[in-house]
Design brief:
By secondary structure, the protein is of the alpha+beta class. It folds into 2 domains: 9-136, Ribosomal Protein S5, domain 2; 139-203, Alpha-Beta Plaits (2-Layer Sandwich). 29% of the residues lie in helices and 36% in strands. The chain has 5 helices and 11 strands, in the order βββαββαβαββαββαβ. The strands form 3 sheets. It has a 5-stranded antiparallel beta sheet, with helices on both faces. α2 (84-93) packs parallel to α3. The longest helix has 18 residues, at 113-130. It is elongated. Mean pLDDT is 93; it is low at 1-6.
Length: 208
């Protein structure tokens, strides 16, 4: 379920968490991580595999992007659809993005069957996500500012008042700044910048 105002806000987890689910001797250890990119997710997955080298499976799912458009799942040797998809389903049921969940399995000697595996991976993911505080963050749009150094204080007052994040800055005699503007604050930011003579504001079209 995607929360109201999803076009202006997104939900993710504030910090990592871990939980364990057991079924007929098998241990399913679920680890949830904030992840802003596929590269972030790969680093976390690599670390989990390093921490659990003797686990039979390292299954995972992630969803990324403020539009929640990027996702990936892996059953890592389990029957198709029995692990990655159930994990992703729990991310989606909470409306989460920029989140990775890895579930490692230590086999206990008893086959659980596909329904049993689906239940186990889903349950482990649920438990880990219940322990991870959920935060609501504004969707930001990148803008570029150009201004004379003498205007720095006035520009910073506006940037702070509109709760913008500073992505990059080059503070020379003539300054350049890239800021992330909360989507719902773009009109008010533009209005305030118009009152600052000599400040140029334009959408940022450079590399992300």
């Amino acid at each position: 379920m995607v929360p109201d105002g999803a076009e202006e806000y997104y939900q993710t987890i504030e910090r990592s968490s871990m939980a364990e689910f057991k079924d007929r001797g098998s241990r399913f250890i679920a680890l949830a991580f904030p992840a802003a990119s596929p590269e972030d997710a790969k680093k976390h997955l690599h670390q989990v595999k390093k921490d659990h080298p003797k686990a039979e499976h390292h299954c995972f799912a992630y969803r990324l992007g403020t539009d929640r458009a990027v996702f990936r799942t892996s059953d890592d040797g389990e029957p198709s659809g029995s692990a990655g998809r159930p994990i992703l389903g729990q991310l989606d049921s909470k409306g989460l993005t920029n989140t990775l969940v890895v579930v490692v399995r230590y086999f206990g000697g008893t086959l659980l069957g596909v329904p049993g595996l689906i239940h186990a991976y889903k349950s482990a993911a649920v438990m880990a996500l219940q322990l991870a505080p959920i935060v609501r963050k504004p969707v930001e749009v990148l803008y570029e500012l150009h201004f004379d150094y003498t205007l720095l204080n006035e520009v910073m007052q506006v940037v702070r008042a509109q709760q913008c994040s500073i992505v990059e800055q080059d503070l020379q005699l003539f300054c350049r700044m890239i800021i992330g503007v909360p989507k719902h604050r773009i009109p008010s930011l533009m209005h305030l910048v118009e009152d600052l003579y000599g400040v140029e504001l334009k959408p940022y079209n450079g590399p992300r």
